[in-house]
Amino acid sequence: MKKLLLMAAVAVFGLSNVNAQDDQPTYGFEKGNIFIEGGVGFNSTNDKNTEAETSGFVISPKVGYFINDDLAIGGRLSYNSFKEELAGTDTQDQTGFGAGVFGRYYFLDLGERFKTFTEFGIGFGSTNDKISDFKTNSFGAGLDLGINYFVTEKIALSFGLKNVLSFSSSKVDVDGAEAVSQFNLGFGDVANPFGGNAAFGILFVL
User: Fold this and answer.
1) Which of 65, 85, 122, 191 is deepest in the core (most CB within 10 A)?
2) Which of 204, 107, 200, 135 is CA-nearest to residue 161?
3) Integer Cα distance of 62 and 128 in angstroms
4) Taking every annotated instance into account, which residue ranges of this chain make up the domain Outer membrane protein beta-barrel (predicted)?
Protein backbone atom coordinates (compact mmCIF):
# COMPACT_ATOMS: atom_id res chain seq x y z
CA MET A 1 0.00 0.00 0.00
CA LYS A 2 2.79 2.39 0.90
CA LYS A 3 4.50 1.60 -2.39
CA LEU A 4 1.31 2.36 -4.30
CA LEU A 5 0.90 5.68 -2.49
CA LEU A 6 4.54 6.56 -3.16
CA MET A 7 4.20 5.72 -6.86
CA ALA A 8 1.02 7.78 -7.08
CA ALA A 9 2.71 10.74 -5.40
CA VAL A 10 5.67 10.52 -7.78
CA ALA A 11 3.32 10.36 -10.77
CA VAL A 12 1.33 13.39 -9.59
CA PHE A 13 4.54 15.34 -8.91
CA GLY A 14 5.93 14.49 -12.34
CA LEU A 15 2.68 15.48 -14.06
CA SER A 16 2.59 18.79 -12.21
CA ASN A 17 6.17 19.51 -13.32
CA VAL A 18 5.27 18.77 -16.95
CA ASN A 19 2.26 21.08 -16.76
CA ALA A 20 4.36 23.80 -15.13
CA GLN A 21 6.92 23.54 -17.94
CA ASP A 22 4.15 23.69 -20.55
CA ASP A 23 2.86 26.89 -18.94
CA GLN A 24 6.24 28.63 -19.21
CA PRO A 25 6.14 31.53 -21.71
CA THR A 26 8.27 31.30 -24.84
CA TYR A 27 9.80 34.39 -26.42
CA GLY A 28 10.84 34.64 -30.04
CA PHE A 29 9.65 33.62 -33.46
CA GLU A 30 8.91 30.50 -35.45
CA LYS A 31 8.19 29.65 -39.07
CA GLY A 32 4.88 31.10 -40.22
CA ASN A 33 4.82 34.00 -37.74
CA ILE A 34 3.82 37.44 -39.03
CA PHE A 35 5.02 40.59 -37.31
CA ILE A 36 4.08 44.24 -37.55
CA GLU A 37 6.71 46.77 -36.48
CA GLY A 38 6.58 50.52 -36.34
CA GLY A 39 9.22 53.15 -35.69
CA VAL A 40 8.72 56.85 -35.02
CA GLY A 41 11.44 59.49 -34.87
CA PHE A 42 11.50 63.22 -34.16
CA ASN A 43 14.26 65.80 -34.01
CA SER A 44 14.38 69.53 -33.39
CA THR A 45 17.21 72.09 -33.24
CA ASN A 46 17.33 75.77 -32.36
CA ASP A 47 20.60 77.63 -33.01
CA LYS A 48 20.50 81.03 -31.32
CA ASN A 49 23.74 82.13 -33.02
CA THR A 50 22.45 81.71 -36.57
CA GLU A 51 18.73 82.03 -35.78
CA ALA A 52 18.23 78.69 -37.48
CA GLU A 53 15.49 76.29 -36.42
CA THR A 54 14.89 72.82 -37.81
CA SER A 55 12.36 70.11 -37.08
CA GLY A 56 11.89 66.66 -38.54
CA PHE A 57 9.54 63.72 -38.17
CA VAL A 58 9.50 60.19 -39.58
CA ILE A 59 7.24 57.17 -39.26
CA SER A 60 8.21 53.82 -40.77
CA PRO A 61 5.85 50.82 -40.44
CA LYS A 62 6.80 47.39 -41.75
CA VAL A 63 5.32 43.89 -42.02
CA GLY A 64 7.37 40.69 -42.06
CA TYR A 65 6.76 36.96 -42.53
CA PHE A 66 9.05 34.23 -41.15
CA ILE A 67 9.99 31.69 -43.81
CA ASN A 68 11.84 29.75 -41.09
CA ASP A 69 12.46 30.25 -37.37
CA ASP A 70 15.28 32.78 -37.92
CA LEU A 71 14.65 34.46 -41.30
CA ALA A 72 11.88 36.90 -42.18
CA ILE A 73 11.09 38.79 -45.37
CA GLY A 74 8.72 41.69 -45.78
CA GLY A 75 7.87 45.17 -46.94
CA ARG A 76 8.09 48.63 -45.44
CA LEU A 77 6.74 52.13 -45.93
CA SER A 78 7.95 55.47 -44.65
CA TYR A 79 6.73 59.04 -44.37
CA ASN A 80 8.92 61.93 -43.27
CA SER A 81 8.83 65.69 -43.04
CA PHE A 82 11.57 68.28 -42.53
CA LYS A 83 11.34 72.03 -42.02
CA GLU A 84 14.06 74.65 -41.71
CA GLU A 85 13.63 78.29 -40.76
CA LEU A 86 16.41 80.89 -40.90
CA ALA A 87 15.89 84.27 -39.23
CA GLY A 88 12.14 83.84 -39.40
CA THR A 89 12.08 82.83 -43.07
CA ASP A 90 11.27 79.31 -44.25
CA THR A 91 14.19 77.91 -46.26
CA GLN A 92 13.11 74.26 -46.50
CA ASP A 93 9.75 72.55 -46.19
CA GLN A 94 10.01 68.95 -47.34
CA THR A 95 7.79 65.88 -47.22
CA GLY A 96 8.82 62.45 -48.40
CA PHE A 97 7.39 59.00 -49.01
CA GLY A 98 9.21 55.71 -49.41
CA ALA A 99 8.59 52.01 -49.96
CA GLY A 100 10.87 49.00 -49.96
CA VAL A 101 11.50 45.37 -49.15
CA PHE A 102 13.74 43.79 -46.53
CA GLY A 103 15.15 40.55 -45.20
CA ARG A 104 15.85 40.09 -41.48
CA TYR A 105 17.99 37.35 -39.92
CA TYR A 106 18.04 36.62 -36.18
CA PHE A 107 21.48 35.29 -35.34
CA LEU A 108 21.91 35.44 -31.54
CA ASP A 109 19.73 35.11 -28.44
CA LEU A 110 20.87 36.96 -25.33
CA GLY A 111 18.91 35.15 -22.66
CA GLU A 112 15.23 34.40 -23.21
CA ARG A 113 13.93 37.88 -24.06
CA PHE A 114 16.70 39.56 -26.10
CA LYS A 115 16.93 38.61 -29.81
CA THR A 116 19.59 40.22 -32.02
CA PHE A 117 19.26 40.54 -35.79
CA THR A 118 20.73 41.99 -38.93
CA GLU A 119 18.52 43.43 -41.66
CA PHE A 120 19.12 44.30 -45.30
CA GLY A 121 16.71 46.57 -47.14
CA ILE A 122 16.23 48.08 -50.59
CA GLY A 123 13.87 50.96 -51.24
CA PHE A 124 12.72 53.84 -53.39
CA GLY A 125 11.55 57.26 -52.29
CA SER A 126 10.33 60.66 -53.41
CA THR A 127 10.72 64.02 -51.64
CA ASN A 128 8.94 67.29 -52.43
CA ASP A 129 10.21 70.70 -51.32
CA LYS A 130 7.44 73.31 -51.14
CA ILE A 131 9.91 76.21 -51.01
CA SER A 132 11.97 75.38 -54.10
CA ASP A 133 9.15 73.43 -55.78
CA PHE A 134 11.65 70.66 -56.55
CA LYS A 135 10.98 66.93 -56.46
CA THR A 136 13.80 64.50 -55.67
CA ASN A 137 13.67 60.79 -56.44
CA SER A 138 15.98 58.39 -54.61
CA PHE A 139 17.08 54.79 -54.33
CA GLY A 140 18.84 53.21 -51.37
CA ALA A 141 20.18 49.97 -49.95
CA GLY A 142 21.28 49.53 -46.37
CA LEU A 143 22.36 47.06 -43.72
CA ASP A 144 21.12 47.52 -40.13
CA LEU A 145 21.85 45.86 -36.81
CA GLY A 146 19.15 45.56 -34.18
CA ILE A 147 17.79 43.90 -31.09
CA ASN A 148 14.30 43.05 -29.82
CA TYR A 149 13.37 42.85 -26.16
CA PHE A 150 10.22 40.80 -25.56
CA VAL A 151 7.98 42.44 -22.97
CA THR A 152 5.41 39.67 -23.49
CA GLU A 153 5.24 36.70 -25.85
CA LYS A 154 3.57 38.89 -28.49
CA ILE A 155 5.04 42.36 -27.90
CA ALA A 156 8.68 43.43 -28.20
CA LEU A 157 10.60 46.68 -28.09
CA SER A 158 13.01 47.33 -30.97
CA PHE A 159 16.31 49.18 -31.06
CA GLY A 160 18.45 49.50 -34.18
CA LEU A 161 21.78 50.83 -35.39
CA LYS A 162 20.67 51.93 -38.83
CA ASN A 163 22.76 52.07 -41.98
CA VAL A 164 25.88 50.40 -40.65
CA LEU A 165 26.56 49.90 -44.35
CA SER A 166 24.52 51.83 -46.91
CA PHE A 167 24.37 53.23 -50.42
CA SER A 168 21.99 55.86 -51.75
CA SER A 169 21.47 57.69 -55.01
CA SER A 170 19.21 60.70 -55.52
CA LYS A 171 18.32 62.96 -58.42
CA VAL A 172 16.33 66.18 -58.62
CA ASP A 173 13.52 65.88 -61.15
CA VAL A 174 14.60 68.72 -63.46
CA ASP A 175 16.18 68.72 -66.91
CA GLY A 176 19.96 68.36 -66.84
CA ALA A 177 20.19 67.29 -63.20
CA GLU A 178 22.81 64.68 -62.31
CA ALA A 179 22.39 61.90 -59.77
CA VAL A 180 24.15 62.28 -56.41
CA SER A 181 25.47 59.05 -54.89
CA GLN A 182 26.55 58.43 -51.30
CA PHE A 183 28.22 55.46 -49.61
CA ASN A 184 28.37 55.09 -45.84
CA LEU A 185 30.20 52.71 -43.53
CA GLY A 186 29.80 53.23 -39.80
CA PHE A 187 27.17 53.69 -37.12
CA GLY A 188 25.72 57.05 -38.10
CA ASP A 189 22.32 57.79 -39.59
CA VAL A 190 22.16 58.54 -43.29
CA ALA A 191 18.95 59.77 -44.87
CA ASN A 192 17.42 56.99 -46.96
CA PRO A 193 14.05 56.37 -48.60
CA PHE A 194 13.13 53.21 -46.74
CA GLY A 195 13.78 53.73 -43.05
CA GLY A 196 14.27 57.35 -42.06
CA ASN A 197 16.20 57.96 -38.86
CA ALA A 198 13.93 56.03 -36.50
CA ALA A 199 16.01 53.78 -34.26
CA PHE A 200 13.35 52.82 -31.71
CA GLY A 201 10.08 51.00 -32.30
CA ILE A 202 7.60 48.41 -31.12
CA LEU A 203 6.91 44.99 -32.63
CA PHE A 204 3.76 42.85 -32.50
CA VAL A 205 3.78 39.13 -33.27
CA LEU A 206 0.54 37.92 -34.89
Assistant:
1) 191
2) 200
3) 23
4) 9-188
